[in-house]
């Protein structure tokens, strides 16, 4: 594997390739080309070849990639060749939904515990997982050597939660709280703001020409109004 630093954008594309390979293997597809991966992923064939080349030569020119072999390599590169132990902090609607889905659908992770500060929630079951009081998080992190956490707590308590879990060994965090959190240099944090994602998506829900035409009209009206004010002055 190359010693060059791999960009975050490359790392984020690797699970996309892995998901495609999982589906191809289920369909008994043994060989896949970069062009076919491009059609499935939406990334260019050149980009895919470049991404994979960061980590080695996995394909055969003119033939493509053996799906099982490439999947095995990607699992090792990402670190999914063994189940990754994960904790979820926040057992509200989002935390519960993420726990239920990943406990059943995500074959690569093992959710070992869910925590919450709300005593009304503590003790409830999410599938086979019982919600524990947040005070037990350091003990569970150390006992199971957990490195990854999902945060679905309110903005006001997110930083305190992060400070506590990173102090006890968490090094990778997927944060769903709408807050900019500060972590030690050796901790990686990835933010997922569902509200912003939805608002960004809305941009594509209206006709672009109609939207731009409306903005242009508003700008012209504003310009005319300013000119009238200047004449009055």
Task: Describe this protein's structure.
With 233 residues, the protein is of the alpha/beta class. It has 3 domains: 8-78, Orthogonal Bundle (Arc Repressor Mutant, subunit A); 84-192, Rossmann fold (3-Layer(aba) Sandwich); 202-232. Helix content is 50%, strand content 17%. It is built from 9 helices and 10 strands. The protein starts with 7 loop residues before the first helix and ends with a helix. The mean pLDDT is 88.
What are its keywords?
single chain; 233 residues; alpha/beta; Arc Repressor Mutant, subunit A; Rossmann fold; 3 domains; seven-stranded mixed β-sheet
Please render the helix and strand layout as text.
Elements: H1 8-26, E1 31-32, H2 34-41, H3 45-53, E2 59-60, E3 64-66, H4 67-78, E4 84-89, H5 93-105, E5 109-116, E6 125-126, E7 129-133, H6 137-144, E8 148-151, H7 155-167, E9 172-175, E10 188-191, H8 194-202, H9 208-232
Helix pairs in contact: 1-4, 2-3
Strand content: 15-25%
Q: How does the major sheet shape up?
A: 7 strands, mixed
The CATH architecture classification of the largest domain is 3-Layer(aba) Sandwich
Counting copies of identical and different chains, the oligomeric state is single chain
Strand order of the largest sheet: 6-7-5-4-8-9-10
pLDDT under 50 segments (min length 5)? none
Secondary-structure element series: HEHHEEHEHEEEHEHEEHH
**CATH overall fold name of the largest domain:** Rossmann fold
The radius of gyration computed from the alpha-carbon positions, rounded to a whole number of angstroms, is: 24 Å
Structural class: alpha/beta
**Helical coverage, percent range:** 40-55%
Q: According to CATH, what is the class of the largest domain?
A: Alpha Beta
What best-fitting shape do the alpha-carbon axes yield?
A: flat
The total domain count is 3
């Amino acid at each position: 594997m190359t010693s060059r630093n791999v960009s975050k954008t490359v790392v984020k594309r690797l699970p996309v390739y892995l998901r495609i390979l999982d589906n191809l293997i289920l369909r008994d597809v043994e060989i896949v080309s970069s062009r076919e991966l491009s059609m499935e992923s939406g990334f260019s064939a050149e980009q895919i070849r470049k991404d994979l080349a960061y980590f080695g030569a996995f394909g055969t020119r003119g033939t493509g990639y053996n799906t099982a072999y490439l999947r095995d390599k990607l699992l090792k590169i990402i670190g999914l060749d063994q189940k990754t132990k994960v904790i979820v902090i926040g057992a509200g609607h989002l935390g519960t939904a993420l726990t239920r889905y990943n406990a059943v659908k995500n074959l690569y992770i093992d959710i070992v515990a869910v925590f919450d500060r709300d005593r009304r929630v503590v003790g409830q079951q999410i599938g086979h997982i019982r919600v524990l009081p947040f005070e037990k998080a350091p003990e569970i992190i150390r006992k199971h050597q957990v490195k990854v956490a999902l945060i679905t707590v309110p903005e006001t308590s997110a930083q305190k939660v992060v400070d506590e879990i990173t102090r006890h060994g968490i090094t990778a965090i997927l944060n769903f709280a709408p807050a900019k959190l500060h972590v030690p240099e050796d901790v990686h944090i990835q933010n997922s703001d569902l509200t912003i994602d939805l608002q960004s998506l809305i941009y594509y829900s209206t006709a672009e020409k109609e939207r731009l035409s409306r903005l242009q009209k508003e700008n012209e009206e504003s310009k005319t109004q300013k000119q009238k004010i200047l004449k009055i002055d």
